[in-house]
Amino acid sequence: MRLSPSNKAFLDARVAEFELIPAERKLVLDRLRDFIKAKHLAGEKVKLVVVCTHNSRRSHLGQAWAAAWGEYFGIATEAYSGGTEATACHPNTIAALVAQGWEIAATSEAPNPRYSARFSPEAASIHFWSKRFDDAANPPDGFAAIMVCSEADAACPFVPGAELRLSLPFTDPKASDGSGHEAEVYQQRSAEIAREIGYAFRSAVGGR
Question: For labelling alongside 200, which of 22, 40, 77, 175 has CA 20 to 30 A away?
């Protein structure tokens, strides 16, 4: 397993929290579990595209943890993200992931910076920048689209190329920006997103 000790410890802690997930959320996550399991058993890569409105916060958190859970459970996974519009990946998103074990470096500057991220020194990098969900960098088909904000869910009822589309909204941590509590709120939201995506991955390999 190519996870840094701090990243693995973070995911271990989320596994211990799976019972905190509400039953109605588990019903949605069970559909994601079935998608992951079917691809894994067929020997295919699991491709996930996490979508929010601006591709600046929740969708990047989901992309990061989907990639990490694939490594944690030994499931070949490609994780992507996108928005219904492009803005910029927010620095508070990056700060939360760094605090939770990720190695992240900026590779370009504003107005839409790009970041290279790894969950361990041995792992291949994944890349964060704000883009539309149908950007050429994302897969054109064969993926599950995970809608993590209600606005994007409403604005994009159909995702071309998606084999599965799930509505899994989370509260936007943006409301904490400038409050002095940003770090706590972003890390809490990151942990919540990690917990729920991790539940689907573990269920796909036989856990509950």
Answer: 175
